[in-house]
DNA sequence: TGGCCGATAAACATCT
DNA sequence: GAGATGTTTATCGGCC
């Protein structure tokens, strides 16, 4: 009964995944209307956007940039996937449950790789790096675009002034309105993009950031561009943030929470109002069209509705549209200090500040968003998750809650670089070949240490692998049971709960597998690893399996690409990649001998593979591991005295030798 | 379909 | 006696 219920609990996780799929499908469907039909839909948006101002609208520019970046990313991923996805890969099996397509990436370019595949292939740091590059590029081009846009506006104004024909206020207001709409759209699209990234777990959002207006972040946030400077310009002189207290639709938490309900946007709110677009979902684009229609409709204005200005945070009461345009809307210019008589050739940001506090707020938001995208690895990152039905119900914020407080497995994310099976709530570790062959535990842990540390995701490794990793990470190559427990809880958020279950499993594995040797120490009993036994227990039948061979080879090539890509990304000063846990040679070297624990064993039975040394490993080490199983016991006993790294520990290296003889010597204990 | 492997649960023994 | 530790068995699911 207990087993049954437990199994049900485990099986409920995949259903949760299906929930993701269904919800994502929903969202995808809704987004498909606006952006899912990238080819045609974008084109429509582009036309509408171009209709209004005769140029590329911010929406389409943003869209275009996203697609460009994703296209590059996908091309890169395709190269990897071509090697990774073997015919027998689990993709086919995933397809049933992988119907879900997370919104943001898929909506931009549904062709080629799916976001899941991206997540499978790329580790979170890589994905984050990719996204950050994408964001940086996007922002840069947006910045250029707005520069041009503002310069054009300014030039037009100057021309009109010099011609002595002051532009009618209404025309000016319309011009400015169009630009403000574009600004809003850009912000909304960015938020939408960010939200979608959060849903996919590609970007984390700290609760404080989510709930708290992003303006609390320092101004000197890691901003790849000087866009905030441009935005602030001289027209937005450090407005007090108190004026921007009202955080309505743009609040990311709210957007996440209302993600499921946005499909039915309020009908009464103006399209560009943040009330209307609580989560910046693709309705932004739809609303763009709506806004165009609004502009065409006399007596209506996207920023005006229900007798008040719909500019976020303004809500100035206006009796009619004319009063709104001539009064509230243009008042912003006067407030800002715009002087039609002066010929200022200043950054045209001052054209915008109809409501300077709001502009400052929005600019701060943007800053915060960009700063958020440059999150530091050291920060506790409650990795966001794809919104599942159950998770969305229980965790409206869409974030992974602290594992210690999590009452139920959340399994928010696909463990990086691994198959979707790793997502199965209780079953990821049940995968055998794929995770072992394609994802060396040590390198995986080295790359995604922060991920597993903070995300309540079950590591896709067997208990034996984890125990071994824990033991081998120590200088002495030995750990007490309690220390192993501590390592588990320290390294994995997942193991901070259900302690009885996994601790029992740990003990079970320690006792069950011969590779774990119990040694009586002065401090008590410690556990060590018998590498030979560990390698022995590896399934040797892989030799004849072309699929596994291909997987393995693909994994190696992936490692090469991964390394090169990480190196390339490292140049972009991506913090995660420079974090000690990522590419730190020291930590990497300490883990290096272990990194092929899962790869080396499968590789080793392949005679021809000996030449193709894994890129991530130094040839000597690799060959060393290869010999572990092939060499006779006496040869490996020659190696035994010295662990791959660290000082040889007599107590650690001794027992394995005894353990090797254990099968013949019943009395296995040394003591 | 069966075997293998890993996860999980549980019972039991031993030790502190 | 309680808890931690260690061993063993049984069952189930995933994968090949």
TrEMBL record:
Residues 458-532 form the Fork-head domain. It comes from the Eukaryota. Residues 1-23, 276-286, 608-624 have a biased composition (Polar residues). Residues 458-532 bind DNA. Residues 287-298 have a biased composition (Basic and acidic residues). GO terms for molecular function: DNA-binding transcription repressor activity, RNA polymerase II-specific; RNA polymerase II cis-regulatory region sequence-specific DNA binding; zinc ion binding. The keyword Repressor applies. One of its GO terms (cellular component) is nucleus. It is found in: Nucleus. The keyword Oxidoreductase does not apply. Residues 1-56, 262-306, 377-437, 593-671 are annotated as: Disordered. Keywords: DNA-binding, Metal-binding, Nucleus, Repressor, Transcription, Transcription regulation, Zinc, Zinc-finger. Residues 659-671 have a biased composition (Acidic residues). Gene3D superfamilies: 1.20.5.340, Winged helix-like DNA-binding domain superfamily/Winged helix DNA-binding domain. This is Fork-head domain-containing protein. It comes from Colobus angolensis palliatus (Peters' Angolan colobus).
């Amino acid at each position: 009964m207990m087993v049954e219920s437990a199994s049900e609990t485990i099986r409920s996780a995949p259903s949760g995944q299906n929930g993701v799929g269904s919800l994502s499908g929903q969202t995808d469907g809704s987004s498909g209307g606006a952006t899912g039909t990238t080819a045609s839909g974008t084109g429509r948006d582009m036309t509408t956007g171009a209709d209004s101002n005769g140029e590329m609208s911010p929406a389409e520019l943003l869209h275009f940039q996203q697609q460009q970046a994703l296209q590059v990313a996908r091309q890169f991923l395709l190269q990897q996937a071509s090697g990774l996805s073997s015919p027998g890969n689990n993709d086919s099996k995933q397809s049933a449950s992988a119907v879900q397509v997370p919104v943001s990436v898929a909506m931009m370019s549904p062709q080629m790789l799916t976001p899941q595949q991206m997540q499978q292939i790329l580790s979170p740091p890589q994905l984050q790096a990719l996204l950050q590059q994408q964001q940086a590029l996007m922002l840069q081009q947006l910045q250029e675009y707005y520069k041009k846009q503002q310069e054009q506006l300014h030039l037009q104004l100057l021309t009109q002034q010099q011609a002595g024909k002051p532009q009618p206020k209404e025309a000016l207001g319309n011009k400015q309105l169009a630009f403000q709409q574009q600004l809003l759209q850009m912000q909304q699209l960015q938020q939408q993009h960010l939200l979608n990234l959060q849903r996919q777990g590609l970007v984390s959002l700290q609760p404080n950031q989510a709930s708290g207006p992003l303006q609390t972040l320092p101004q000197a946030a890691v901003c790849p561009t000087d866009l905030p400077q441009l935005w602030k310009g001289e027209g937005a002189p450090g407005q007090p943030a108190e004026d921007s207290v009202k955080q309505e639709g743009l609040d990311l938490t709210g957007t996440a929470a209302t993600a499921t309900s946005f499909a039915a946007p309020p009908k009464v709110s103006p399209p560009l109002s943040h009330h209307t677009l609580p989560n910046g979902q693709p309705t932004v684009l739809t609303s763009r069209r709506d806004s165009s229609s609004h502009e065409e409709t006399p007596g209506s204005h996207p920023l005006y509705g229900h007798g008040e200005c719909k500019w976020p945070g303004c809500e100035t009461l206006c009796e009619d549209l004319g009063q709104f345009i001539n009064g509230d809307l243009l008042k912003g210019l006067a407030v800002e200090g715009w002087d039609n008589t002066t010929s200022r050739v200043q950054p045209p940001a001052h054209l915008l500040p109809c409501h300077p506090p709001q502009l400052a707020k929005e600019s701060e938001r943007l800053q915060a968003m960009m700063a958020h995208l440059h999150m530091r690895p050291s920060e506790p990152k409650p990795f966001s998750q794809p919104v599942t039905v159950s998770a969305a119900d229980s965790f409206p914020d869409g974030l992974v809650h602290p594992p210690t407080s999590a009452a139920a497995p959340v399994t928010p994310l696909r463990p990086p670089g691994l198959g979707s099976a790793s997502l199965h709530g209780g079953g990821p570790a049940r995968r055998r070949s794929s995770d072992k062959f394609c994802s060396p535990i040590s390198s995986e842990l080295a790359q995604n240490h922060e991920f597993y540390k903070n995300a309540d995701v079950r590591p896709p490794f067997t208990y034996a692998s984890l125990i071994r990793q824990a033991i081998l990470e120590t200088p002495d190559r030995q750990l007490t049971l309690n220390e192993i427990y501590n390592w588990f809880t320290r390294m994995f958020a997942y193991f901070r709960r259900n302690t009885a279950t996994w601790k029992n499993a740990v003990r079970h594995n320690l006792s069950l597998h011969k590779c774990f040797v119990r040694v009586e120490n002065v401090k008590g009993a410690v556990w060590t690893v018998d590498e030979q036994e560990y390698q022995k227990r590896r399934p040797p039948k892989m030799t004849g399996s072309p699929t596994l061979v291909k997987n393995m080879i693909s994994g190696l090539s992936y490692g090469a690409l991964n390394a090169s890509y990480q190196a390339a990304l490292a140049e972009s000063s991506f913090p995660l990649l420079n974090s000690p846990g990522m590419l730190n040679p020291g930590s990497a070297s300490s883990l290096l001998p272990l990194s092929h624990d899962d790869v080396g064993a499968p590789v080793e039975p392949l005679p021809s593979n000996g030449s193709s040394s894994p890129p991530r490993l130094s040839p000597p080490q690799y060959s060393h591991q290869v010999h572990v199983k092939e060499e006779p016991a006496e040869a490996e006993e020659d190696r035994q005295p010295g662990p791959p790294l660290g000082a040889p520990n007599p107590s650690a290296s001794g027992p394995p030798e005894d353990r090797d003889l254990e099968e013949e010597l019943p009395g296995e204990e040394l003591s």
